[in-house]
Amino acid sequence: MNQMDRMKELVELLNRAGRAYYQEDREIMSNLEYDALYDELVELEGQTGVTLSNSPTIHVGYEVVSELVKEEHSSPMLSLDKTKDVDALAAWLGDQKGLLSWKMDGLTVVLTYNHGELEKAVTRGNGEIGEVITNNAKTFKNIPQRIPYQGELVIRGEAVIKYSDFDKINAAIEDVDARYKNPRNLCSGTVRQLNNQITAERNVHFFAFNLVEVEDVDFHNSVKRRFEWLTELGFDVVEYVEVTEATIRDAVKAYAARIEKNDFPSDGLVLIYDDVAYGKSLGNTAKFPRDSIAFKWADELAVTHLQYIEWSPSRTGLINPVAVFDPVELEGTTVSRASMHNISILESFELGVGDEITVYKANMIIPQVAENKTRSGTVPIPEHCPACGAPTEIRQIRDGRALYCTNDYCSAKKIKLFTHFVSRNAMNIDGLSEATLERFVEEGFVNDLYDLYRLEPYRMQITVLDGFGDRSYENLIQAVDASRTTTLSRFLYGLGIANIGVATAKLICKQFHNDLDAICHAPVEDFTEIEGVGEIIAESVVAYFQNPDNLHRIEELRKELTFEQEVVEEGNQTLEGLTFVITGAVHHFANRDEVKALIEAKGGKVTGSVTSKTNYLINNDVTSNSSKNKKAKELNIPILSEEDFLALMENGVPQEV
Question: What CATH number labels 411-564?
């Protein structure tokens, strides 16, 4: 392959990895792999003198894809040049003084204050255009709502979620497969939420790292003095130390020693000249400012040998490969395991038992396989599930292939079904965590969903379990009994039927007038008459009710439950026959679910996509160019702000609609 072809290949691969990372909050390659490929591309561009138009070396970030309002930054937000060599860092600093700080690993946010009030918050986006997240930023745990400075102040910083908060959030998610991969992904999704209540609950912190605009304040030409001033205003700034060429090596060592115990995610350090005028005089390259540079940790590699691949079944049937190797010391700790994520990644390393491999810790924390020097490729893909022994199959998922168990009654999947059934939006049974359900299954107390309502014979065995006692048992039984009276839509959702979410369950129950027998025996065409239910969903519902085991489960559950009617405002169905779509942030309601509940109570329907059957699109950003707005305009469907919607509710729907 010639140099130009290799450059094209690298550009495509790096851009694909960038899109996954920035737009979809997932990773298709490790930081180590990305850095190596990026450095190779830079070297080739230097050798050939050619930079391709879509090269990641000249483009910063990727277009945002959320429906948040977008806004152009007053000045481009460039990324930083980087090095992994401490000596190169010292040479870059030269005879200047600098400030060395953590390079936080979260989401960059720009804050604007005017007249002492937080006026606006915008994400970095693609470096030129970001997303407006002002309502969310106001819920950050450490952002001052008012400051004494009355002029315009624009600062940049990083929104991050602590490891301790990240662990608590994941621990509360009973479905292991639904847990977040890392704090950066969680923070990215949290900061860009359409419901800022969710943002508030996740303890986002903001650390300022750059003062962009301010008037009539003398900082004596010092970045340090800028940081001190921001601290005086109540902002947390990135932790920093003053360094010179003589002291920077020891400073880097001191930061490195704290990585393991640091509660905030970071992916390196940032060095900036303290002399503001000097830094500005250097200007920028097309991609990087010249007044600062990033230091990336030089990954410590260790050579070891693969012992075996452990196949770990999940609650959804996904079976994850985990490399188990001879223990080695990395970054001060002993490691012996590293996730291989999926079949595609596993096969790319051509692993075999006894192979000599190199391993490292991504960002000095997460164990990863870097290279397989032997490449014997002898690790077999299991043909049977390690949990239940049923046949496995390989399925295509996004950019790779993954292994799944084909048994609908796999013990791992059973726990998943139990967990879903007792969840808040389903039967809402408190006290039945995934761990408790797993224990009950192991002990033989429950084998099917209806057994949850027949625990009395096992009272003695349950009360002597670790963590249980008479009081815990009584609390559990009270929660179980409280769930005996429920709505049919909650029950239907709790059954775990493929493609049936909370909203679809409600639509089905409404269509069949809360008649469970009618739902169980309806043909496919009856379901496809429901707005938002297509052929695939209808077929999956009918297939579920055609399974004798499922019908038996339903009949046994009906013996234990009482279904109450959904609350409907009879005689006040002002929205009867109308279909709405709701998008974007809301201000007069707690969240979009509250708007939906009001519409449904008035006899209307709420669907997720704009079609020719939609009567109104509710979007506070009436003039935006979002996909839903564009579709509504194409179909001549009215777009309502919340105020428009409330006026419609008060004044009534026009007769021509």
Answer: 1.10.150.20
- The answer to whether 119 and 113 have CB atoms below 8 angstroms apart is yes
Strands (E), 525-585: 562-564, 579-582
Measured between alpha carbons, how far is 233 from 481 in angstroms, rounded to an integer? 54
Report the alpha-carbon distance of residue 584 to residue 551 in Å, rounded: 40
- Domain positions in the chain are 3-48, 70-295, 302-380, 411-564, 579-651
The stretches of 289-339 forming alpha helices (DSSP H) are none
Q: Is the alpha carbon torsion for 84, 90, 92, 96 positive or negative?
A: positive
Please check whether the domain covering 70-295 is classified as CATH 3.30.470.30: yes
Q: CA–CA distance from 629 to each of 67, 75, 633 (Å)?
A: 10, 29, 6
Catalytic residues: 103
Q: What is the homologous superfamily of the domain 302-380 according to CATH?
A: Nucleic acid-binding proteins (2.40.50.140)
Residue whose structure tokens are 């761990």: 435
How do beta strands 400-405 and 318-330 pair?
antiparallel
Options 1.10.287.610, 3.10.20.30, 2.60.40.10, 1.10.490.10; CATH for 3-48 is 1.10.287.610
Residue pointed to by tokens 């870059």:
92
Contact call for residues 363 and 31 (beta carbons, < 8 A): yes
Compute the C-alpha angle 133/237/247, nearest 5°: 140
Please, where are the H alpha helices in 450-515? 459-463, 470-482, 488-494, 502-511
User: Mind listing the pLDDT tens digit for each residue in 84-138?
Assistant: 889 999 999 999 999 999 999 999 999 999 988 889 999 988 788 888 998 889 8
Q: How far is CA 466 from the centre of its chain?
A: 34
φ, ψ dihedrals at 594, nearest 5°: -70, -40
SS3 399: coil
pTM above 0.70, yes or no: no
Residue 47 CA, distance from chain mean position = 39
Is residue 62 scored above 50 in pLDDT?
no
Which SS3 state, helix, strand or coil, does residue 427 take?
coil
579-651 carries CATH number 3.10.290.10: no
How many CA atoms does the CB half-sphere of 400 hold within 13 Å?
Answer: 18
Q: Shortest CA distance to 206 belongs to which of 239, 160, 165?
A: 160
Radius of gyration from C-alpha coordinates of the chain:
28
Per-residue model confidence as pLDDT tens digits over 552-576: 999 999 999 999 876 554 556 678 7
Per-residue tokens: 547: 């399974």
